[in-house]
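go over whats below:
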Amino acid sequence: MAAPENNSLAGKWTLHYNISGNEGDLACTFDQSDKDFTGACKGDQGEVSVTGKVDEAKVTFQYKTEYNGDVLTIVYTGKLESPAKVSGTVDVQPMGVDGDFTLTQSK
């Protein structure tokens, strides 16, 4: 199968994040339909459901998680640097904490 020309994120990815000095990795699997994608990411804290969108080179996705009993929405905004790499910023709502991330396609 050739490399996707339509900026598809379908497949397996590794999400590395650094939010206020807290670093971690999640193993993600995405399915994509047109510009919208859904999937799941697994890490030490369990699995989260992800929803997102790819609009040309701009990628946005988010998931909800719980921290100390509070529900947080983790929002990722990035740029497709290549068919196998996305990088950008992370915003933790409603805490107002931020950081950065890279999403790389898994082999």
The chain has one domain: 11-105. The chain has no helices and eight strands.
